[in-house]
Design goal:
Blueprint (H helix, E strand, L loop, with lengths): L2 E4 L2 E5 L4 E5 L2 H9 L3 E4 L4 H11 L3 E4 L13 H17 L3 E4 L1 H9 L5 E2 L4 E6 L1 E2 L5 E5 L2 E2 L8 E5 L5 E6 L4 E4 L11 H11 L5
Helix pairs in contact: 2-3
Length: 202
C-alpha cells in the first residue's frame, strides 16, 4: 500500500518536562479511508526529512493544532519541520494537503498573512466559490483574507475568510476545515485527497 506522511501537534507536559507529538486517531483513519497507509512524522526537522526521503510517500498531510510561532504559538520545532516538509514536497514533486493549521503553514510559506477573526471556532459555514453550498466545520481563530500567487483561493465564507486554497503548479491543497472531525467522513474530502495524491497521467 502506498504511504502518506502526516504531521502531529506538539503537546507540552510541564509536570513531566516533556514535549509530546500526538494526533487525533481519526486523522490516520481518514488517510486510510482515502486508500493510503498513514505514517506519522516526528516534530524533528532532520528525522522528518530522513523519513520523507526514505519512504518517498504518495502525499503529505499537514494537520491542525498549534498556532504558528509568529502568531502566538509555542512549537517552533513544528514550524521548522513543516516548512522543510513543504520544501521537500515541492522539490520531490510530492503533493501536499494541509488542513486548518496545515493550510496556515501553506499560506505562511507563500508569504500570505493571517489575521484574527471571530465566529470561526466550533462553528459551521457554507462555502462560496468553487465548492458553492458545501457546509464545513470551523475551529480556528486566525485566517487569511487575501492570497497571492502561486496560490489561488477556491472557497470562502460570507465574511471573506478564505476556506480553501490551491497551488496547481506544486499540487498543494489547503482547507481550513478538519476532514477528520466529520462523522462520517465527507465523501467530498475523501475524493479531493484521492484526486490530489493520485498518480498523474503521462
Amino acid at each position: 500500500m502506498e504511504t502518506v506522511l502526516y504531521t502531529q501537534r506538539v503537546e507540552i507536559i510541564e509536570s513531566y518536562g516533556e514535549r509530546r507529538d500526538c494526533a487525533d486517531q481519526r486523522i490516520a483513519e481518514f488517510i486510510s479511508a482515502c486508500g493510503y497507509l498513514p505514517v506519522p512524522l516526528p516534530n524533528h526537522r532532520e528525522l522528518a526529512a530522513q523519513t520523507f526521503r526514505q519512504l518517498r510517500p504518495s502525499g503529505v498531510v499537514l494537520t491542525g493544532g498549534n498556532s504558528l510561532v509568529k502568531y502566538g504559538g509555542n512549537a517552533p520545532e513544528r514550524d521548522g519541520m513543516e516548512r522543510e516538509l513543504i520544501k521537500l514536497s515541492i522539490e520531490g514533486k510530492i503533493p501536499a494537503y494541509g488542513f486548518c493549521r496545515g493550510m496556515q503553514v501553506i499560506l505562511d510559506y507563500f508569504g500570505c498573512g493571517l489575521e484574527e477573526v471571530a465566529g470561526h471556532v466550533a462553528a459551521r459555514h457554507r462555502l462560496n466559490g468553487a465548492w458553492e453550498g458545501e457546509e464545513v466545520n470551523s475551529f480556528h481563530n486566525q485566517a487569511c483574507l487575501q492570497v497571492k500567487g502561486p496560490l489561488q483561493k477556491l472557497a470562502w465564507t460570507e465574511d471573506g475568510v478564505i476556506e480553501a486554497v490551491l497551488c496547481k503548479e506544486y499540487r498543494i491543497l489547503g482547507t481550513m476545515w478538519h476532514p477528520e472531525r466529520e462523522h462520517p467522513f465527507r465523501q467530498e474530502d475523501i475524493e479531493r485527497v484521492k484526486g490530489l495524491f493520485g498518480k498523474q497521467e503521462g
